[in-house]
Amino acid sequence: MLTKSAVIRFQEKYTIDVLAPVGLVQGNGYVGLYTRMKLNALSVLAVNAQNMNSSMSSASTTVSQNSNLENLDKFFAALDIVAAKQRISSSTIVVLKEQAMKRIATTTDMRATFLKLVQNNSHQAIEYNSFVNRVLATMERAFGSVFMPGRAHATVGVPFGGAILYAFLCDGGVWNITLSPLPPLYPVLLAYESGSQAFLSYNIPITHWLLGEYEPVPMAYCWVGIVPYPSEGLITPMVGSSTL
Questions:
Q1: 148 with 154: CB under 8 angstroms?
Q2: Would you state the pLDDT for residue 168?
Q3: How many CB atoms within 10 Å of residue 113?
């Protein structure tokens, strides 16, 4: 009787997956096809999560040897936030994090590589650094006005700014950048294509704040093998580093 009651509670907890496919609205305590499928799916998810947590726990003891583990929790938290917005399943997120752990363990310092990239990838901007300073100063004034109530920003892209918390290297020179969320849309995870920026991030690594615009297109720009990673949009060429 206790087992049947437990099964009923389980079925009614997962009504959409278990009861709805067979036209039921209340649990009956019978472990049929859909109940068994849900039990198996949750079991696999639990095992994968346990294995991933074990891997992260082991990896955390070697932070001093792998700089990619610093702020990894913030990257994973951003994945969770974006996945919830885009209705990505929890089982898929487990796979994303497992793949990320494999890449993090076998690559060089991602953050250092990214900061060097955004500082040096615009040779034209380096030649005309004074011009870049003026452009970024103008961008900062426009960016600041976005944070003021009642002000509009008339550009193609959506303005963003924030500290770089984590840089994850995808295939094909694309990065998934975790940012400290700021208005107007509070993006936490944006894709960046290597070499796409028009302006030099001239004061990185002195500061690690990016300032620019992005296109909020909910699609996967970041891929690791055949696994797509979500982002909230693609950073446009109008991006540099904040002089603040």
A1: no
A2: 95
A3: 13
